[in-house]
Amino acid sequence: MSDMNIPGVTGTYDKYVEALMKVERIPRDNAQKDLDTQKSKRAAWQTANRLASDLRKSANTLYSFNNPFAEKVVGSSEEKAITATASRSAENASFKVKVDKIASSDSFLSNPIDKKMEVAPGTYTFVVGDKTISFNWKGGNYRSFVEAINKRGKGILSVSEIKTTANSSGLLFKSEVLGEANRLKFEDDALTFALENGILKKNDTSAVGFDRQSVVVQPLSSDKIAFSKTVRGSDGNILEITVSRSAGGASGQAAQTIAHAADENASNKTFEQLGSLSYQGITITNEASSAGNLPVTESLQNSTPSPASQAGGNLQMLPQGTNLNVFSLESARGVLIPLPPIANIDGEQKITVDLAEYGDVKALVLNNPNSSLQIDVSSIRIYDPKSTGEYTAANPVSVASDAQLEFEGIKITRPTNSIDDLIPGVTLNLRDKTEGTAKLDIEPDKQLIKNTIIEFVAKYNQMLTEINILTQVKPEIIDELTYLTSEEREAAHKRLGLLSGDSALNSLKNNLRTKAIAAYRANDETKIVLLSSMGISTNSARGGEIEAGGLRGYLEIDEKKLDEAIANNLADMKEFFGADQNGDKLIDSGLAFALYEQISPYTERSGIFATRISALDTKISSSTKKIAEYDKKLAAKEAELKRKYSAMEGTLKDMKTQSDKIKSFSAPKGE
Question: Which residues, including other chains, have CB under 8 Å from residue 144's CB and lie 6 or more apart?
């Protein structure tokens, strides 16, 4: 029913209606206050549940399988050149690594190109190692051609436009696969394109010939294979020798004659040993390494000897005194530079020598000082590693090559800069050539351990702080928390004492404090039995006064003492937080374990906190329905009052009208 509005009369009776409705609304207002309190309590329980869950999770982190005490970190003395990552299975150890060269891929730059250059139609084929990219091109602008290659060559080949000068650009063809075996080749119409644009050129590097391709060196004899020209070290060529050894011998006068001839031949040459100095018949050599026996590591048996030797067969027992140093290079000055010894294995072996390390040379000299060993050279060649068969890069930015390094003095080659098969549980990341020998130290991740413990203490204090706020009505509890912002302080005051007297929260607080100061001894020898042993305690004495925070159970950290404990008693700290006391491979004691077990009944799906929240949800639902019913009844009541007062006002108006008429009849005439 619509409200009646009688000017001059209605306003007075509206005040009467409002006054009556104010009294009627008291039960509804009380129900609303109850609902607001219930919602605040539910929010408080949800916060307590979240903080307790965070503390439980933090405690579990300190003793679970993924605990920080098993995490490893690798320090490097030359981080710009080599770094490493270690898994939890890696052993604490130190290693020496020297990086001679990192693995690289082919990267070829074209000549400057015309901005309007069109790429002719055809079949364009690019090969990177054992991967092939081939497509039919219908012709078009070079930028569309570049897009077509990049679309098909993801992870294999990429092409980019490089501004080489202020006014010109070139195309950079870059292999995305590292390693010497993954050379970039251009085939079909791609080869024509590469030649026309100065990416490749005919391999005009003069081939180095030899006076012989093979030679057999008998026991106690020498020989030489002369090069057709002096090979310059700056050219970066590679010498490859295929050699084998077999039993052979001479006896009696023949042996003496061979030995005498060998001595005479040797006396006519000057031998120069790398790492030595010779002057007027006096030679000073470097002292032999005193590194001792090397540790056994993964894939060491597959490592490349020095120089890199690819060989088959088995290790052989040789007669005492056998000398496998049989090869030397004759320098342009006529000085003999010894090469490393051949491998002590049966069958053919292929020796690869980087001539850049030996300067300018003109011959390979073979000197066999053994009386019962024959040396057979079946082939020899010198080649430019930058060449790809008939063609070579015209403007090479980089050339595909393997990483070369020395691990504890042993030469290693790998086709990648990420090496995970050398040290168990460790991945080496090669970035650049080392200045010297880098030292790698595998050790526990002490910073992670410290951060995890600090986080655990913070979660513990947050839990205790919230319980103190919710269960007590002392404003000083909040005033002590100097780190709170003004907004956080205001919100804390609203929660102060909200769950005062709750036995579950008070019990949890008391149990947490008791367990935090308890002793946990994994064995009789352990030095860490209390939190205070590692610089964590509730004793906050400063200047002779005890702070209230210490009395309320909050933990404080002495970082210096914590650092000392981590450095000196890491194993004991691990056992303090979680230990297996009965030998069943399951953690069953320790502070972190005890707190986890204490909190679990509160935070589990049907735990104490969930029960409290569920009960409040029920009350909130009931209160919401109750308020809705109140609102419905109050609306009906207000409408009824307004209807009655409207009717009364109408009656009064009629009575007033009649009264006025009566007065007009009874009044004297003329008035």
Answer: none
Structure tokens at 100: 């001679």
The letter for the amino acid at 366 is L
CB atoms within 10 A of CB 348: 16
Non-local (6+) Cβ contacts of 115 within 8 A are 169
Give residue 235's pLDDT: 82
- Which candidate, 59, 89, 71, 86, places its Cα nearest to that of 446? 71
The pLDDT, as a whole number, for residue 205 is: 57
Spatial separation of the C-alpha atoms in residues 137 and 643, rounded to whole Å? 90
**CB-based contact 241:383 (threshold 8 Å):** no
Work out the number of other CB atoms within 10 angstroms of the CB of residue 537.
Answer: 19
- For residues 285-289, give the mean pLDDT: 45
Annotate 58-102 with three-state secondary structure. Answer: HHHHCCCCCCHHHCEEEEECCCCCEEEEECCCCCCEEEEEEEEEC
pLDDT band, very low/low/confident/very high, at 571 (cuts 50, 70, 90): very high
Share of the chain above pLDDT 70, in %: 83
Return the minimum-mean-pLDDT range out of 343-352, 549-558, 560-569: 549-558
How is residue 520 written in tokens? 């946990």
> To which residue do tokens 């109140």 refer?
630
The CA dihedral of 513, 514, 517, 519, to the nearest 10 degrees, is: -150
> Given this model, what pLDDT does residue 668 score?
65
Return the pLDDT at 304.
39
Q: Give the pairing of strands 82-86 and 426-430.
A: antiparallel
Tell me the CB-side half-sphere exposure of residue 634, using CA atoms within 13 A. 18
- Decide if pLDDT at 160 tops 90: yes
Measured CA to CA, the distance from residue 532 to residue 225 in angstroms comes to 77
Please indicate whether residue 456 or residue 247 has the higher confidence score (pLDDT). Answer: 456
Residue 618 burial class via C-beta count within 10 angstroms: exposed 0-12, middle 13-18, buried 19 and up:
exposed
Is a pLDDT exceeding 80 seen at residue 559? Answer: yes
d(CA 322, CA 307): 19
Is 344 buried (19+), middle (13-18) or exposed (0-12) by CB count in 10 A?
Answer: middle
